[in-house]
Amino acid sequence: MQLQFSPTDVLLLPLIAITVSTHEFSHGWVASKLGDPTAKERGRVTLNPLAHFSWKYTLVLPVLLYFATFRHFTFALAKPVPVNPFRLRSYTRDWKRPFADMIWVGLVGPAVNLGIACLMALIVLSGVFPATRVGTALLDVAYFIILLNLLLGMINLLPVPPLDGSRLIIGLLPRRHAMYILRHELIMFLMFISAFAAVVILAGGIQEVVVPPLRWAWGLLGLSLEYFDQLFPPGG
């Protein structure tokens, strides 16, 4: 299955920008509260999407991957929020696990996304949207917000550096082992992207890999699987 894009998808870009900005803001805010003001010093503790935009990761990377994998796979990132683990409270106070505070800095991003998804799911299930044209349009927007936040939250929970899930591992490791991962994050990430792209191509498209866990999470929230299957028809 190949990725398909519609010109109307551009209308959803503001929602994507806001979601990503909220995710990145949470990282910087928690880091500043735990002793590292690096993100704040560089103007990254903000909800302004432009502060989190990166030509390399947000634009060039997804375009290159899209064409390099024959339109089967793409992946984009916001500009990583700068976090200096040596300025965090756990390191400066010489804790037994010196990078323990990285756990909270890393996991807050996915937690915010999954929290937004749960909140929007509760709103949808409450039946607040009227059965009118406007109500249906608002319901579709709510569903998109849920999908986007589920996807962003679940992907970032993967324990692959520099994704947020890896911060849990780094935080639990002794200094020597944690430093090894921090020094080799780029290599590990490139290996992950290459392996994931290969899996996607062999599976027949990115939806064949991403949709099943997304559908599971969608059902876990109590949302209509019938609606989900209309968006991503099985075998479609």
How many individual helices? 11
Distance between the termini: 8 Å
What is the general shape?
globular
SSE series: HHHHHHHHHHH
Averaging pLDDT over every residue, what do you get? 87
Largest sheet: none
Task: Give the percentage of residues in beta strands.
Answer: under 5%
Radius of gyration: 19 Å
The tally of strands reads 0
Measured as a percent range, the helix fraction is: 55-70%
Low-confidence stretches: 1-7
Structural class: mainly alpha
- Total of domains: 1
How are the SSEs placed, and which strands pair?
Elements lengths: L12 H21 L4 H4 L13 H14 L20 H4 L8 H25 L7 H24 L8 H8 L2 H9 L1 H19 L2 H15 L4 H7 L5
How would you describe this structure to a colleague?
This protein is mainly α and 236 residues long. The chain has one domain (7-231). The chain has eleven helices and no strands. It has helices at 13-33, 38-41, 55-68, 89-92, 101-125, 133-156, 165-172, 175-183, 185-203, 206-220, 225-231. The radius of gyration is 19 Å and the shape is globular. The protein starts with 12 loop residues before the first helix and ends in a 5-residue tail after the last helix.
Which features characterize this protein?
11 helices, disordered N terminus, mainly alpha
Q: Brief description of this entry?
A:
The chain is an all-alpha fold. 64% of the residues lie in helices and 0% in strands. The chain contains eleven helices and no strands.
